[in-house]
Design goal:
Layout: E1 5-8, H1 14-25, E2 29-34, E3 47-51, H2 57-69, E4 76-79, H3 94-122, E5 125-130, H4 134-137, H5 143-163, E6 168-175, H6 188-196, H7 206-217, E7 228-231
Parallel strand pairs: 1-2, 1-4, 2-3, 4-5, 5-6, 6-7
Helix pairs in contact: 1-7, 2-3, 3-5
The chain binds NADP nicotinamide-adenine-dinucleotide phosphate.
NADP nicotinamide-adenine-dinucleotide phosphate binds at residues 9-16, 33-36, 52-55, 80-83, 103, 107, 130, 132, 175, 177-178, 180-183.
């Protein structure tokens, strides 16, 4: 790969943690964030955990200044942080809508906005947004979540068209059901019903997602932009 610095939002657990560790093990300088203090518990100098709520624009700007001072502005940005707040639409509270949109969609805007200028200057960049098949096929109880993820698909395409001429690619990865805290609440019966509909017959693993992110960040993926690629064991097919 051509460049060195990568920034992963939501890296304290789950998919983001796997992505951060995977890149760090390959020698990249990785900064990973979450709203609370955390540790990767790994002896890797090139893997830094920082506390950053991506919905707080002042903190995002402070983070930019700090990264700049350390020569760590990202060449590769992975917008992974995301939350759910599931509720049937009829009962959905305003804050359940606002919180999900603010984290999943506006948080991605906040980070991409501050980091893209440096990518434009360098004439190189990779932005990879973690969306969801929920944003592509819909899911009952997730009007807020699927709206935020569907919006990221439009974000990805429009931004890809704007910055392609600067050698910056923008793509989305849409996981299906992946084994993380986000899906740990699923009851056994629900889990079995989900698996019945997955052609590959299993819930996904975090590295199923991180390997695709690694590919999209690589030189081999330099002619791929504006795309949303699912990692879902075949659950959603067009
Ligand atoms: N797991 C799945 O089946 C699945 C399926 C489709 C898509 N996805 C998407 O994949 C991404 C990762 O999901 P996951 O399952 O790994 O989730 P997870 O285990 O719940 O982890 C989410 C991460 O995001 C961080 N985070 C949340 N809000 C944040 C904020 N405002 N600022 C900074 N960090 C924040 C969390 O840390 P703190 O809570 O400490 O802030 C945590 O590190 C999400 O975008 C999710 O929508 C997951």
């Amino acid at each position: 790969m051509s460049r060195e610095n990568i920034f992963v939002s939501g890296a304290s657990r789950g998919i983001g943690k796997e992505i951060a560790i995977n890149f760090a093990k390959k020698g990249f300088n990785v900064v990973g964030t979450s709203r609370s203090d955390f540790d990767f518990n790994l002896d890797l100098d090139n893997l830094k955990p920082i506390k950053l709520d991506i919905t707080n624009r002042d903190d995002v700007h402070d983070c930019f200044d700090w990264l700049k001072s350390k020569n760590l502005l990202p060449d590769i940005l992975v917008n992974n942080a995301g939350i759910t707040s599931d509720q049937l639409f009829i009962r959905m509270k305003d804050e359940e809508w606002d919180n999900v949109i603010e984290t999943n969609l506006t948080g991605t805007f906040n980070l991409s906005k501050v980091f893209i200028k440096n990518m434009i200057k360098n004439k190189f960049g990779r932005i990879i947004n973690i969306t969801s098949i929920s944003g592509l096929m819909g899911n009952p109880g997730q009007v807020n979540y699927s709206s935020s993820k569907a919006a990221l698909t439009g974000f990805t395409k429009s931004l890809a068209k704007e910055v392609g001429s600067r050698n910056i690619t923008v793509n989305s990865v849409a996981p299906g059901y992946i084994e993380t805290d986000m899906t740990s609440f699923l009851e056994d019966e629900t889990r079995m019903n989900i698996i019945k509909n997955i052609p590959l017959g299993r819930i996904g693993k975090v590295d199923d997602v991180s390997e695709l992110v690694m590919f999209l960040a690589s030189d081999e993926a330099s002619y791929i932009t504006g795309q949303t690629i699912s990692v879902d064991g075949g659950l959603l097919m067009y």
